[in-house]
Design goal:
The complex is a heterodimer of chains A (about 140) and B (about 475). Chain A is about 25% helix and about 40% strand. By secondary structure, chain A is α+β, with helices and mostly antiparallel strands. Chain B is an alpha+beta fold and about 475 residues long. The chains are: A alpha+beta (about 140), B alpha+beta (about 475).
């Protein structure tokens, strides 16, 4: 289980996809790469550094492959953002086999402070990849906005 | 796009030859300039769609086509269930029935000019827009079921609009075959606070004026004249549609091998029309269409209320409402006989020509209005369906300009305040809760919609009728 220790163990980035946006997490472990991809997801909406992590939301999802698990994970966050009108600034994640248990930490959307740019509709199978290479784990896909 | 791999059939028609496991050829419409600028991925995706079971005639792409997921945005493909035809969640997209409706106001630019600031304020107060915004209408489960199976007809029955609106909406305001019980609890919950909301991104509510008329006769029949003020609303099925798309995209990706469907690309996730999953998706997706139609109808009601407080002499009547992301069972001629096929339009507009039996009396002689959205600083267009487009594209046309640069690049190029000030200097009022959102949607981030519309016109997909320019834009 990763903890909220404030130490960066990976990085996130966006990559271009015409009308939509690609989100990517890179880290030494699969779980941390998923966590970084979640930061990239938040960054589509607002700066993750500007989100207070006062409220905790439990998340659980399952999928038969790592790649579909990434899609399920991001879609679970998109769903929680939508129904709770929240943005998330940090995540703790535990992946075991086909299951992912996590807690997303964030707060209610504050239009003035967060300046949310756009809603994310869903995570797609486009440019979907979860892989392990020389520089660690990569977890990425395009999200529809 | 590398044009040497294509066969040019006319100035605006480019064929991807049928090779390998393609069941039909690909056909892409566009000028040479548009084609050269088009992403190579469009050709690849048009080719992949051409391999799907049961596809008919061709895999098409409209002049505004760009890289989508599985299907290209701007893709059109028809499938016959009698030949193992499929339905694809990726072929419809996440924002089910995202579309545009345009309303007459009965007032002119001169009348609106002294009141436009007040009207902009009133519209931005009346229509919830942007991330985290909530509507004022909350539906319990029973009401939600009625909305999902009734669409705009349900909305009108609830008092959001008038009976006359329904004739001016595709499917006369209600998509038949919707199955409310096929919509998941999550999708329902995602919609609980979002009825009558605009959303964000490229969705908008615009007050526009008719700047040019290209076809005087059709414009007259549509009730459009230079200096007329109109209202255009661009939005879709909100969270409910997004959740339906999300759930079925992965369900279909997992299930495809079970159906023995060999997918050239996992993103083409689909199921046979004649399967439980296919039927379940069709029921849920049609409910999503109804959600979008109801949503645009409620927003129309809110816009009418806003106008009533500022310009009570305005009479907002619906010109037409088109949907962009759908799969519909339609009748089309094949060698003289009519056949029913499942027609996917992903970022494409239905464009029925004159005489089509599904058009209401007032539009049957002209053909269907085809509404093409631009950006907050550039033109939008009204076109009309042609008789030729039946043979060219199963009566389909383009849907908009498409982005020229990524959101990230737009954010590095513009500041929201700067965009708002520059548009204000041109007399265009922008109201948005998010300056960052405005920067990402800056007019310069989009391709030239006029070039796209000119290509659609020249290719015969639809014909230009009128050009609209923005006066007020409410963005999410």
């Amino acid at each position: 289980m990763l903890t909220l220790d404030g130490v960066s163990k990976g990085s996130w980035a966006h990559f271009a996809h015409d009308a939509d946006i690609g989100v990517r997490g890179v880290a030494p472990t699969k779980a941390e790469a998923f966590r970084q991809a979640a930061f990239a997801l938040t960054a589509v909406v607002t700066d993750p550094a500007g989100v207070r992590t006062t409220d905790a939301v439990p998340v659980f999802c399952q999928a038969p492959t790592d790649e579909l698990l990434l899609v399920e994970w991001l879609n679970a966050l998109i769903y929680e953002m939508a129904v709770r009108a929240m943005v998330f600034g940090d995540f703790s994640i535990d992946i075991e086999g086909e299951s992912l248990r996590a807690t997303a930490y964030g707060e209610a959307v504050d239009i003035a402070r967060h300046e949310p740019a756009v809603e994310v509709k869903g995570a797609t199978l486009t440019a979907l990849k979860v892989s392990h290479g020389a520089d660690g784990w990569h977890a990425q896909c395009v999200v529809d906005v | 796009m590398e044009l040497s791999t294509l066969v040019r059939r006319s100035d605006y028609e480019w064929w991807v030859p049928q090779t390998g496991t393609m069941r039909v050829p690909g056909i892409i419409y566009g000028s040479e300039t548009l084609m050269r600028d088009m992403d190579e991925k469009v050709r690849e995706q048009v080719t992949n769609v051409a391999m799907l079971p049961g596809i008919q005639r061709a895999s098409y792409a409209m002049p505004d086509a760009h890289w989508g997921y599985g299907f290209p945005i701007g893709g059109v493909a028809a499938f016959d269930p009698d030949e193992g035809g499929i339905v694809s969640a990726g072929g419809v997209g996440f924002d089910i029935s995202c579309g545009v409706r345009t309303l007459h106001t009965g007032i002119t630019v001169e009348q609106i000019e002294p009141l436009k600031r007040e009207l902009a304020h009133q519209l931005s107060r009346s229509v919830p827009a942007g991330v985290g915004s909530h509507g004022r209408i909350h539906l319990d489960d029973r009401e939600l079921d009625a909305m999902l199976e009734g669409g705009a007809r349900w909305a009108v029955q609830c008092g959001y609009g008038v009976e006359a609106d329904l004739d001016r909406i595709e499917e006369h305001g209600c998509m038949e075959g919707a199955v409310a019980s096929a919509v998941s609890v999550k999708a329902r919950r995602r919609q609980q606070d979002e009825m009558g909301t605009l959303g964000s991104g490229n969705h908008y509510l615009e007050i526009q004026h008719v700047a040019e008329v290209h076809d005087a006769e059709i414009a007259r029949a549509f009730g459009l004249a230079v200096n007329d003020v109109v209202v255009s609303i661009h939005c879709g099925s909100r969270g409910l549609g997004h959740q339906i798309g999300t759930e079925f995209l992965t369900d279909m990706a997992i299930a495809a091998p079970r159906f023995g469907i060999v997918l050239p690309d996992r993103e083409l996730a689909c199921a046979p029309v004649e399967s439980d999953l296919g039927r379940q998706y069709l029921g849920a997706m049609r409910a999503g269409i109804n959600c979008a139609l109801a949503n645009r109808q409620i927003i129309t009601h809110l816009v009418r209320q806003a106008f009533a407080t500022v310009l009570p002499q305005a009479a907002l009547t619906l010109l037409y409402d088109v949907s962009h992301n759908t799969c519909k069972l339609e009748s089309h001629p094949f060698n003289g006989a009519s056949r029913e096929i499942f027609l996917h339009r992903k970022g494409a507009t239905r464009a029925f020509g004159p005489g089509h039996p599904d058009l209401p009396t007032g539009l049957r002689d002209t053909g269907q209005p085809v509404l093409i959205g631009g950006t907050m600083g550039t033109a939008s267009y009204v076109l009309v369906g042609t008789s030729r487009s039946e043979a060219l594209s199963f009566s389909s046309s383009c849907h908009g300009a498409g982005r020229a640069m990524s959101r990230h690049q737009a954010l590095r190029t513009w500041r929201g305040r700067q965009v708002i000030d520059e548009l204000a200097a041109r007399g265009i009022i922008v109201r948005s809760p998010s300056p960052r959102g405005v920067a990402e949607e800056a007019p310069g981030a989009y391709k030239d919609v006029t070039v796209v519309v000119d290509a659609a016109d020249a290719a015969g997909l639809s014909r230009k009728v009128a050009k609209l320019l923005p006066i007020i834009c409410v963005k999410g």
